[in-house]
Amino acid sequence: MATEVDDFLREGALMPYGSERVRLHAEAVRVADLHQDLEAGFKARQQLIQSANLGGDPNLALVAFAWCLGQHDADPKRFPANGGGYFTNLLWMYKWVVERAIEHPAISRAKVDELLADMARRYTAGGFSLRPVRKLELQSAVTAQEAERIPAAMAEWLRLRRDSLSDCMACDVDMTSAAHLATHDLKLAREAAKPIFELRMTCAEVPTVTYGRFLLPLSRSGDDEEAQRLAHLLPRKIGINRDYVTPAGALVVYLVERRSRPALPTAQRHATWALVGETPLRRVTLMIGLAKASRLARDMGRGEDSLGILLPNEPATSFAEAEERMTQEAMKVAAAFDARNGHDRFSSTVSKHLAGDGEWWWPL
Q: 3-state SS of 178-204?
């Protein structure tokens, strides 16, 4: 049995984040449960949490994560919460679970608040700083476009001590700059991000996510030279890494708005990222970019050119077919966030971007 579980886990680990990877890791969980093997079930769910979380299914990740927490609560020595590496340490993984929950409109604010409260309780019980919890509260305000909440949330986060469960300094600096962008303060955002732009701080995702975050605000502010520099760097940094779907979306928007020669090829390169994998929040900028690219292709007489395969098992979609579809998908995401947040700020922002008269800040 253990071999069968491990086979599913290994096979899934070779797949890109998405439905097939989730299916294989869910099958590993099913086999472990069928044989009532708690250790194998715990191990398989740790993999499933990662795959579902990064593959756009935070509800499934929450269910698996709750099971793991339950096993830890029942037998902490057998199932430790704070052991191993990033992908096995439940307290570290809690940050990822809540982050993706915040970014997915299917998870209610009440559920997010419940998760944050439980996370805070567990961190306090373990003697850890609440800094990661407060950072997620800040991210919640930023994601909801509730700028009035941001200054107090940021101050509360930054006043707390760092420890072993805190994010790296580069990620924290990136978050600080993002919060300033969310309050439409480009000057403070650039000052905060200075160590990143000077390459004095980097990590696995920084500076790629930072460059993507700043590309459109800088362009709209009239800093064409810096925007062009970032647009030149981003294609190589994004590569084929779907984690960078948001920078890819920003790049498509930037190129389309300038009617640059690489605009349509860049849209084609990243089209398969728009509707699957990652959270809707991270994908919505690319949806907007592809709608704009499709409009540009139509204006250029290339509407019947192939944009690409948008979903598995679908035929290739033309630019002409994709324009309405991407517009509808972006507005659907916006409406879902509005329903969760209790106001229409998300739909208002997305509508303006689709019409071409929006101001790009963060997250939109």
A: HHHHHCCCHHHHHHHCHHHHCCCCCCC
What confidence tens digit (pLDDT) does each residue in 211-220 have?
999 999 999 9
The rounded mean pLDDT for the chain is 96
Q: What is the largest CA-CA distance in the chain?
A: 66
Residues 6+ apart with CB under 8 A from 88: 46
| Alpha-carbon torsion angle 250, 256, 262, 265, nearest 10 | 80
Tell me, what amino acid is at 90?
A: L
Q: pLDDT over 70 for what percent of the chain?
A: 99
pLDDT tens for 107-141 read 999 999 999 999 999 999 999 999 999 999 999 99
3-state secondary structure of 361: coil
In the chain, beta strands by DSSP E: 306-308, 317-318
- Measured between alpha carbons, how far is residue 156 from residues 50, 134, 187, 303 in Å? 29, 7, 22, 50
**Which amino acid is located at 297 in the chain?**
A
Task: Look up the pTM and report it.
Answer: 0.94
Q: Where are the alpha helices (DSSP H) in 239-277?
A: 245-257, 263-270
**pLDDT reading at 152 higher than 80:** yes
Cβ atoms 278, 241 nearer than 8 A: no
Residue 96: which of 29, 167, 181, 164 has the closest Cα?
Answer: 167
Distance CA 189, CA 4 (A): 50
